Amino acid sequence: MSSPIATRVDERGVRSYDVPLPRDLVVALRETVASRGSHPAYLTTAGPTTWVEIGAEAESLARRLVGDGTRPGDRVAVLAGNGVPFTTAVLATWISGAVAVPLNHRLTADDLAGLLVDCTPRALLVDGARTELAAAAVARLDDTAPTVVVADGDGRFLGGAPEGEIPPATPGPDAPAAIMYTSGTTGRPKGVVISHGNALQNSVTCTTVIGRRPEDVELVMVPQFNITGLCSQTVPAMVLGMTAVLLDGFDADKALDTIGRHGVTSTVGAPTMWWRLLEAAETAARGELSGLRLALFGGAPMPTALLARMQAAMPGATFGNGYGMTETCSMIMYVGGDDAVARPHTVGRPLPLTELRLISPETGAEIEPGGIGEIQVRGGQVAIGYWTADGITPLTDADGWIATGDAAQLDDDGFVVLRDRLKDVIKRGGESVFSFEVENCLHQHSGVLDAAVVGVPDEQYGERVVAYVVAKPGHDLTSDEVRAFCREHLAHFKVPSAVEVRDELPRNPGGKVMKALLRTGSGA
Fold first, then answer.
1. Per-residue pLDDT at 520
2. Topology of 425-519 in CATH?
3. Rg (CA), the chain
4. Residue 191 in 3-state DSSP?
């Protein structure tokens, strides 16, 4: 899958990949073990682990799961930070024919117990650092509690039942591969069911369109339990037989050390991660970032000021911005290379096998070019559905379209320009204020490290614009200073009526600001 992309275009203008896919993720793993077995799969403080070693560990754990009673279609939950235990646990689950359920280890025991009740796993695989959290969550369950298997100090899952016979046939492209819980920032987390085919289609994008290579060294610094970490980094690394370095918890200085020590060539980060990497590198005059070949971002629009700094720090890198959501198994649009630099205001064009339309939220009619409407997409990357107690329920309409909740428009060349989350558009005195536009302005200020803008109720205007900013180290920002800067660059009705300086902004594991918390005054 490392060959240059070739596509076909049908009568609707939808492109198709001219790249063969493995039958499912189990076949993909076994093909990689056969062709790249001696190549390092993961680099850790204990040394390299090869693909043949990863494959053997996963096959062994799969037999142990089956011996404990796991059957095809059962759920196996995984509570682990970024690392070999997480990866082995997920791969073993797929080999056993079961459905992996990566859990957010940052949740409380009560929250985790609720997810375990929801997905009713047969087993819970835990790394050594989360044993107490797992025990506390399981203690809140009744007799439906899963079998708990804990990795030892070397990251291996030992003990358990005698080994069983793994299924002779692999799951196939349409079988559920994982239940990925959404962040739940606006309500109870939803379990999104993705298939083996969903994950493999996304991996083609991550290799052919983005341009990852088998010889790349990928730094995974977003959580593996997140859709980006799992499906846009872990799975593509497996399909290509790449080498990955797994960073458990983001820290800018630690990330820079890792990039330099292991010769990292590619990584993905939310814009706030790149801000902090650049700040750390510039403060200490460190040059690790200059060795990156691919510098990818997503999770939010890219501030132009940040992109300019990235270009200066990484003159030889190719930049790329991906747009997607958990329900679409990560990416549905991408802009990379020269276009990513020339069009920082866009999130790209639809990927092959992806149809896109913009729909009026008020009338349901399709928006003409130049107008603003809600992004709707359909294609093979759209997840199977939502997990419920009554089974898997559809997440699309009858024609296969899924609504993203994002407002956007198309530019003259067909690139998608995000305007805002529909729920985040601020209605001020009859004018629409797009928070992304105000945030981009705030990022131009030399003292602003991070920024978020929300609308709050106002008796006179309906809503007013409020900004939250994080100052760069050494900068003493004031509300008046920031508002004065905005008045120079924005129409008067877009200028924040209030600016609050905070130490940090509340973000979910995918790097997105949890604006619901800011609207209520919480999320400090």
1. 80
2. GMP Synthetase; Chain A, domain 3 (3.30.300)
3. 23
4. strand
- Burial tier of 224 (Cβ tally within 10 Å: 0-12, 13-18, 19+): buried
DSSP-based three-state secondary structure for 394: coil
Is the CB of residue 502 less than 8 Å from the CB of residue 308?
A: no
pLDDT value of residue 195 = 97
pLDDT confidence of residue 490: 93
Residues 6+ apart with CB under 8 A from 423: 186, 405
The model's pTM is 0.88
Classify 101 as helix, strand or coil: strand
Q: Residues near 447 by Cβ (< 8 Å), separated by ≥ 6?
A: 471, 472, 475, 477, 481
Return the CATH architecture of domain 7-410.
3-Layer(aba) Sandwich (3.40)
Helices H, strands E: what count in the chain? 15, 28
Residue with tokens 């929801």: 118
Domain extent listing, the chain: 7-410, 425-519
d(CA 362, CA 168): 51
Most confident range (mean pLDDT) of 37-41, 105-109, 377-381, 451-455 is 37-41
User: Rounded to an integer, what distance in angstroms lies between the CA atom of residue 183 and that of residue 352?
Assistant: 27
Mean pLDDT of all residues in 3-32: 74
Q: What residues are paired with 134 via a beta bridge? A: none
- Which among 182, 199, 235, 175 is positioned nearest to 386, based on CA atoms? 182
- Strand, helix or coil for residue 188: coil
SS (HEC) of 263-331: CCCEEEECHHHHHHHHHHHHHCCCCHHHHCCEEEEECCCCCHHHHHHHHHHCCCCEEEEEEEEHHHCEE
Tens digit of each residue's pLDDT (9 = 90 or more) over 406-441 = 999 998 888 999 888 888 889 898 788 999 889 989
CA 207-272-193 angle, 5° bins = 50
Complete DSSP assignment for 216-262:
-EEEE-S-TTSHHHIIIIIHHHHHHT-EEEE-SS--HHHHHHHHHHH
Structure-block tokens of residue 407: 């407002």
Write the DSSP string, 7-36. Answer: EEE-TTS-EEE-----SSHHHHHHHHHHHH
Q: Distance between CA atoms of 248 and 246, rounded to whole angstroms?
A: 6
Per-residue tokens: 77: 């939950």
Cα separation, 493 vs 433, in Å, equals 8
Over the stretch 377-402, which tens digit does the pLDDT of each residue have? 999 899 999 999 889 999 999 999 99
Question: H-type helices in 476-514, by residue range?
Answer: 479-489
Structure-derived torsion over alpha carbons of residues 372, 376, 379, 384, reported in degrees to the nearest 10: 160
Region 346-364 average pLDDT: 90
